[in-house]
Each structure stands twice: as structure tokens, then as C-alpha cells.
Specification:
- The radius of gyration is 16 Å and the shape is globular.
- Helix 3 crosses helix 4.
- It has five helices and eight strands.
- The protein is α/β, with parallel strands linked by helices.
- It starts with a strand and ends with a helix.
- The protein has a four-stranded parallel β-sheet with strand order 2-1-5-8.
- It has one domain.
Length: about 180
């Protein structure tokens, strides 16, 4: 299939090889960066850096109530929750206004994890699995949009399924 500029997929910027992670490292996903990019228009997004967090930066953890988690700096205790939630609402409105057919997010990220972000109900408790804050707001705002993590795209079948879903979403959006 040739590149279809009508199909737009948001992608965690670190999966495209951008050095935006808390430790300044990158986590490129070869299929997303080298193959999916030839099929659709990719829209890089990094909640932390777009919010204004530096690279490198202090890691953050999700803490507290699973229904309303807090994003807290591991060392400083700085609470990023309100700023992140406000940024998420603005950025998701921008992305959807421009047309969006799917999203690929970084697994285990406190912003982007799709059911794989660690959430600590209490500081010394064993973590639960949760959505990251960006994912949580995305699910609430766009419940019908296909959302996957990088780890959900490891097999050829999973990649074909994802591509078929975003193609169908684009067809519905462009009708």
C-alpha cells in the first residue's frame, strides 16, 4: 500500500527515535518508524516534553487512587497531575480536530502506558497495572479510537490488524 496522507496515527515520539525519555534515551520501534511511516501520516507526541518537562528529567510515578491517579516526581514529590491532565485535554482536542485514526503509545510509561503503567496505591505497596494519564484521558475523550502499545505490534498479524483498524477509522472519518 502506498502512503495514505488521509490516515493519521499519533505515536509516542520515543518510538520514532526521538530522545524525549526521562533518561534521555530513545526506544525506537522499527516497524512503526520504518514501515508504518510509509503507510500513514505519523504525528509524534510526547506528553512529558510537550508539557515542559526537561530531558533528562526526574522520573515520575503514578500514585494513589486508581480512578484518579496522581503523577508524582520520584525524588522531589512534585505533583504534575493537574498540569498533565490539562495538557492532555488540550493536545487530544488538537489531535482529533486535525483528524486522527489511531494511536501507538509506549508501554509501561506513566503517561502513555495502555494498562501497563505501574500505579502505587500507597508508597510502599506493590504496584497495580493502570493506564498512563495521557491514555486515560484519551480513552475518556475518544472511546472508539484504536489505541495500542508498542508491545501490541510485535507480530505480523497484530500489525496487520492495527493497520486495518486505522484504515477503517479513516474511511469512516472521510465519508
Amino acid at each position: 500500500m502506498a502512503h495514505d496522507p488521509k490516515i493519521r496515527v499519533a505515536v509516542s515520539a520515543c518510538l520514532l527515535g526521538e530522545r524525549v525519555r526521562y533518561d534521555g534515551d530513545t526506544k525506537p520501534h522499527t516497524w512503526v518508524r520504518d514501515v508504518l511511516s510509509r503507510e500513514v501520516t505519523l504525528v509524534p507526541v510526547c506528553p512529558e516534553t510537550e508539557l515542559g518537562m526537561s530531558v533528562p528529567r526526574e522520573p515520575v510515578d503514578l500514585m494513589g487512587d486508581p480512578g484518579a491517579p496522581r503523577m508524582i516526581g520520584v525524588t522531589s514529590g512534585e505533583d504534575w497531575t493537574e498540569r498533565m491532565n490539562a495538557w492532555c485535554r488540550r493536545r487530544i482536542a488538537e489531535l482529533t480536530a486535525e483528524g486522527l485514526d489511531g494511536i501507538v503509545l509506549k508501554s509501561r510509561s506513566p503517561s502513555c502506558g495502555v494498562g501497563t503503567a505501574a500505579l502505587y496505591p500507597e508508597p510502599s505497596a506493590e504496584p497495580l497495572q493502570s493506564d498512563g494519564l495521557f491514555t486515560k484521558v484519551f480513552r475518556e475523550t475518544c472511546p472508539d479510537l484504536v489505541i495500542v502499545e508498542d508491545e501490541d505490534l510485535e507480530s505480523a498479524t497484530d500489525r496487520q490488524d492495527f493497520l486495518a483498524h486505522v484504515q477503517m477509522a479513516a474511511a469512516r472519518r472521510c465519508d
